[in-house]
């Protein structure tokens, strides 16, 4: 039974930029736990994302902690450009630096929860030598860089392997974030498997104009761990 408190991380790359202020106010009213900020350099992923100056300005408009997802090569160089706070999450990609353990130590210096992100094709065994340097894992369930993609089906089997591994090494305490095509159904399944942070994007709460009416409540239900709800989740 997954007793960890479920948290929603709303993916700002999925919002309509013309409605960002209203969207952020609504997310705050809904007590969303994190703002998921996809930072992309066009090299680690074939897309460009939210810039550091823009993100710094966002901080002035919301009290919600940031969930930085660094989809960039050499993430160490980006860290000083961000306004990282102790209540934030910072995910660096295993595949984005030759010196993963050093980069994780660098992230730790800024005080946030240190998260390691891995792409769909990166095996759980990649975590073996760094599992004691991290506070959480961000499992990409799509190939990162774009919203609106379908889940990579092998993610479910991989996440099962992940929780067996975490049990083996005594790290069942850490956060497990899932990022990519987290529909209500996928969120419900992944909650049942042990995930506890859910990236909410176009697959759940965001439509063309902004937040879809009733979608946050539906996602909350899907990740409530309440078995009577599970059957109703489509
Ligand atoms: C993927 C991004 C996420 C997410 C967007 O690279 O990191 O923010 O996939 O949400 P969906 O997949 O629901 O559109
Ligand atoms: Zn992301």
Please describe what this structure looks like.
- This protein has an 8-stranded parallel barrel.
- The protein has one domain (7-232): Alpha-Beta Barrel (TIM Barrel), CATH 3.20.20.
- It has helices at 20-29, 52-59, 100-109, 154-168, 184-193, 215-222, 227-230, and strands at 7-11, 34-40, 66-71, 89-93, 113-118, 136-140, 175-179, 197-200.
- Helix content is 28%, strand content 18%.
- The protein is built from 7 helices and 8 strands; from the N terminus they run E-H-E-H-E-E-H-E-E-H-E-H-E-H-H.
- The mean pLDDT is 95.
- It is an alpha/beta fold.
- The chain binds D-xylitol-5-phosphate (DX5) and zinc ion.
- D-xylitol-5-phosphate binds next to strand 2.
Query: Uncertain runs with pLDDT below 50, 5 residues or more?
Result: none
Could you describe the largest sheet, including whether it forms a barrel? 8 strands, parallel, barrel
In quaternary terms, these chains amount to single chain
How many whole angstroms does the radius of gyration measure? 16 Å
Shape: globular
Q: Judging by the overall fold, what is the CATH architecture?
A: Alpha-Beta Barrel
The end-to-end span amounts to 21 Å
